[in-house]
Specification:
single chain; mainly alpha; 6 helices
Length: 174
């Protein structure tokens, strides 16, 4: 989940430029996505998340022996190059889809929508990965792992958003 979880902060950090919706409105006269969803953010967020995943793959064999008493080391060596791309890219797609629906509901950019704001990227990462690499997803995200992710991710998400806000990369701390 680390590549998926870090894709969004990297998108915010390196984003800006041309909005994905090109500044256009939907048929409800509201922006399709808003200025916060840009091509540069999508590209660099996805690339950075993928690079983080690649780093995980490269380090896993070296870290596994030290974690042997805590987790099964074989869990650290099962990787997928498809998931390496789909997890961060899917995370950003999940955020984009959520933004689309927030605009339809009348939420402005930066408006808080609890739970959806924290778990949109998890849903996007899992859905895209399930569509393109279901075997890897189901092998790595058992029901207990999925529950743990759903419970833990919101805490990390809020912490990263507060950090982004304090660094001046986000307009709001959520």
């Amino acid at each position: 989940m680390i590549p998926a979880g870090l894709a969004n902060p990297f998108a915010a950090l390196f984003g800006g430029g041309t909005p994905i919706d090109f500044g256009k409105n939907f048929k409800d006269n509201r922006r399709i996505l808003g200025d916060g969803k840009t091509y540069r953010g999508l590209i660099f967020g996805s690339l950075c998340g993928t690079l983080i995943g690649l780093l995980q793959i490269l380090l896993a064999p070296h870290i596994a022996p030290y974690l042997a008493g805590f987790i099964d080391p074989s869990l650290l060596v099962g990787y997928s190059y498809i998931a390496l791309i789909t997890m961060p890219f899917g995370a950003l797609l999940g955020d984009i889809v959520k933004s689309f629906f927030k605009r339809r509901l009348g939420f402005e950019r930066g408006a808080m929508l609890p739970i959806a704001d924290q778990l949109d990227f998890v849903a996007g990462a899992w859905v895209l990965t399930f569509l393109l690499d279901p075997e890897w997803l189901l092998a790595n995200f058992t029901i207990w792992v999925a529950i743990a992710v759903i419970l833990i991710i919101p805490v990390f998400h809020v912490a990263f958003n507060i950090a982004g806000y304090k660094l001046g990369k986000k307009d709001v701390p959520w």
